[in-house]
Amino acid sequence: MKIIHNKFIPFGDFGLMNILGLVFSKLPSELISPRSKRHEGTHTYQQYELLATGAILALILCNIYASWWYLLALPIVPFAIYALAFFAELVRPPYHNAKEFFEGKRLCDKVKAIPAWFAKVWVDAYRDNCFEREAYMNDDNPEYLATRHLFAWLWYIIPRDERK
Ligand SMILES: [Zn+2]
């Protein structure tokens, strides 16, 4: 993992952004904890696995359909799998306790509260998708990356109620 310190990437409130083991950071190195490094290390393995999945699928499709256009599956498949995991969490209840969020409010206040509520649901879907959950649930374990199984993120696709 190589950490690239800069002032702009990642955008917004994120502290670190990992692209295939290149970690962009707005934080000085002394503020990047070993835990954060393990978290990003897990994402690096996940990204390699998604890329390998895209490459294998691209080669199979190129052979079946005898066209190089199917090499486009290589960059598309990893994003498609991640998007699927994210949107599956987005549509899965409990929608950030919507009942408590809107209960007792007048109709116009309920309508005004929708964007703030949806932002919470969006952040929940980000934190609860299988890739983030694998990283969060194991970033306290210094041995995790050495003992991790291939495609371990698949085991984190479980109902929200059963999560730690
Ligand atoms: Zn993460």
Task: Provide structural commentary.
The chain is mainly alpha-helical and 164 residues long. 55% of the residues lie in helices and 7% in strands. The chain is built from six helices and three strands. It has helices at 34-65, 73-90, 98-102, 107-128, 130-138, 144-147; strands at 2-5, 16-19, 22-25. The protein has a three-stranded mixed beta sheet, with helices on one face. The model has no long low-confidence stretch (mean pLDDT 89). Bound molecules: zinc ion (ZN). Zinc ion binds at residues 39, 43, 132, 135.
SSE topology:
Elements: E1 2-5, E2 16-19, E3 22-25, H1 34-65, H2 73-90, H3 98-102, H4 107-128, H5 130-138, H6 144-147
Parallel strand pairs: 1-3
Antiparallel strand pairs: 2-3
Helix pairs in contact: 1-2, 1-5, 2-4
Bound molecules: zinc ion (ZN).
Key descriptive features of the protein:
mainly alpha; 2 domains; globular; three-stranded mixed β-sheet; about 160 residues; binds zinc ion; 6 helices; single chain
- Helix-strand pattern, N to C? EEEHHHHHH
Biggest sheet, open or closed, and with what strands and sense?
3 strands, mixed
Q: What fraction strand?
A: 5-15%
Mean pLDDT: 89
The gross shape turns out to be globular
Structural class: mainly alpha
Say which molecules are bound, naming each kind only once.
zinc ion
What is the helical fraction, as a range of percent? 40-55%
The count of domains is 2
Number of strands: 3
**Which ranges are low-confidence, i.e. pLDDT below 50, for 5 or more consecutive residues?**
none
Q: How many helices in DSSP terms?
A: 6
Strand order of the largest sheet: 1-3-2
**What is the rounded Rg?**
19 Å
